[in-house]
Design goal:
Blueprint: E1 14-17, H1 19-22, H2 28-42, E2 49-52, H3 99-107, E3 111-117, E4 120-121, H4 122-126, E5 142-143, E6 154-157, H5 164-178, E7 182-186, H6 202-215, E8 220-223, H7 233-239, E9 242-244, H8 253-266, E10 275-277, E11 285-286, E12 294-295, H9 300-313, E13 317-319, H10 328-334, H11 337-345, E14 347-354, E15 358-364, E16 370-376, E17 382-385, E18 397-400, E19 405-409, E20 413-416, E21 421-427
Parallel strand pairs: 1-2, 1-13, 2-3, 3-7, 7-8, 8-9, 9-10
Antiparallel strand pairs: 4-6, 5-6, 11-12, 14-15, 15-16, 16-21, 17-20, 18-19, 18-21
């Protein structure tokens, strides 16, 4: 059986993704500006992945209203494999692909990722392009009835057809040659066009995992969109490193509130190499490529709640905002090492209490302490009792990880602002 790498993503991946700020039309200049910011301001705090999201092979992406241009013309090589559009990624000229960008990012001490849609380009199928290393052409492996609901670029790949695995092997060998470290595959965690079979692309997940093994490079495999199918958790954990629990997450309180349900559902499936994914953090300046530029609509308390939930649950941390436009507040959220440690080193994340207005989560600290996070989901400030005795922490000392402040003996009740939270580390001194 081919399964995912045993070494990839041993802790939740941390990085930046271009989608929230630049939509489908990110350029090399924008990508590298964010990479340089990460090098200068975030790398020392654990951030490392720079991910170029969707439509990087489309020269005219973003030139029309809407996220995608129907049946867009893509840049392909002679084997039907997508290559970067040179007008948007000039360093790719002359067949270099993403190698120059990856090399520059690696020289910064960072890692490089890309987004792909599952399947094979319609364009390659209609042109009968050969599949590298085989005597078949693209239409022989395509599944024209397996398509995306929201992007018309691809047909699915039929795993039962000769040459199907060879196609996926060929594209991941190309990515390995480019120096890619992370691949986000879309329309695969939930093929939401097919309501009765939302995990209809499971065989493509397996082919992709096998292709990663065959390419000879350690590549983190991320699956999108969500919601992932909880009944398929075993399959996701076998073949992928992270998978989306939700459809696209944006800066709306109702979506953030709903994430508590999703984390509750997936809490027992978190661990090294297997990370249920809350999606990107819409922090800072977002919406530029959507023609709706704005600083995040989340209040500061809501931003703290989001960062705290992602951290205590141990979701991957992928920032969505344009990093060079960060204000000091946003930067402070991303460089709080005490909070980042909860995400990277906590263990056994679990929900302890659930009421209409309150959630209480915990995870185990590596030194024997307990990380405790409380969330007020109501529309007004409220005080909530804490079950310290039941946790064996009635005499514990508390440290406020957001404020970097020792609080003395942990209080058995605490006030939390509306849509706000606390994040403590409790230690007994034993």
């Amino acid at each position: 059986m081919f399964i995912k790498s045993k070494n990839a993503a041993q802790t939740p991946p941390m990085g930046w993704n271009s989608w929230d700020c630049f939509a489908a039309n990110v350029t090399e200049e924008q990508l590298m500006a964010n990479a340089r910011y990460m090098r200068d301001h975030l790398k020392d705090h654990g951030w490392q992945y720079v991910v170029c999201d969707i439509q990087w092979s489309e020269p005219l992406a973003g030139t029309e209203e809407g996220e995608y241009r129907p049946f867009a013309t893509l840049c392909l090589d002679e084997y039907g494999r997508q290559i970067p559009a040179e007008n948007r990624f000039p360093s790719s000229a002359g067949g270099k692909g993403f190698r120059p960008i990856a090399d520059e990012i690696h020289a910064m001490g960072l890692k490089f990722g890309i987004h792909i849609m599952r399947g094979i380009p319609r364009q390659a199928v209609h042109a009968h392009l050969p599949v590298l290393g085989t005597d078949v052409t693209a239409e022989k492996i395509a599944s024209p009835f397996s398509i995306s609901k929201w992007n018309g670029d691809m047909y699915g790949v039929d795993a039962s057809k000769p040459g199907a695995q060879a196609y996926y092997d060929s594209i991941f060998r190309l990515y390995a040659e480019w120096g890619v470290d992370f691949v986000k595959v879309d329309d695969i965690s939930n093929t939401n066009l097919y309501i009765d079979n939302p995990y209809s692309a499971s065989r493509e997940v397996e082919m992709i995992a096998k292709a990663i093994q065959n390419c000879g490079r350690e590549i983190v495999l991320s699956l999108s969109p969500g919601p992932a199918v909880i009944e398929e958790a075993w399959h996701l954990k076998t073949y992928a490193n992270m998978w989306r629990m939700t459809d696209d997450f944006w800066d709306k309180w109702e979506l953030l509130r709903n994430m508590f349900f999703r984390c509750e559902l997936w809490q027992t499936h978190v661990g090294p190499g297997s990370w249920p994914d809350c999606d990107m953090l819409p922090l800072g300046k977002i919406g530029i490529g959507f023609r709706r530029p704005r600083m995040t609509n989340f209040t500061r308390d809501e931003q703290l709640t989001m960062m705290t939930l992602w951290s205590v649950f141990r979701s991957p941390l992928m920032v969505g905002g344009d990093l060079p436009q960060n204000d000091e507040w946003t930067l402070s959220l991303l460089t709080n090492d005490e909070v980042i440690t909860v995400n990277q080193q906590g263990a056994n994340p679990r929900m302890l209490e659930k009421t209409e207005d309150f959630r209480l989560w915990a995870s185990d600290a590596p030194d024997g302490g307990l990380y405790l996070a409380g969330f007020n989901l109501s529309e007004e400030e409220k005080s909530f009792p804490l079950p310290l005795a039941e946790l064996g922490m009635e005499n514990a000392a508390a440290r406020d990880l957001w404020a970097h402040a020792d609080l003395g003996k942990a209080a058995g009740e605490t006030a939390i602002p509306s849509h706000g939270c606390f994040l403590w580390k409790l230690t007994t001194g034993e």
